[in-house]
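Can't paste images in this forum, so I'm doing it all in text. The chain is below; anyone willing to post the predicted C-alpha cells underneath?
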Amino acid sequence: MDFAVRIQSIAQAGLQYGKDRFDKERYEQLRQIDAEMISERTDLPVSKIYGLFCNESGYQTPKIDTRAAGFLEEG
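Text version of the structure:
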C-alpha cells in the first residue's frame, strides 16, 4: 500500500501546484485511479476511499499529536 500513498501524495501536490487545468485534470484522474486501486485491495467502496484520502490539498504531510503532563511531587 506504500505505493498507493506515494501516488496519492503526488496527485495531491499536483492538484495544488499544477500550472494549468490540463495538468490538474490529469492529477485528478491519477487520484481517482489510485482510489480505485486501494478499493480493489481493501474491498472498500471507492467513494469511502475517496472520502478518506482525497479530501486534502497541498503537500501530504504526516499528522501527529504530541501531549505532555508535568507532575510536582511535594515533600
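Helices lie at 2-17, 21-42, 46-53. Residues 21-42 form the longest helix (22 residues).
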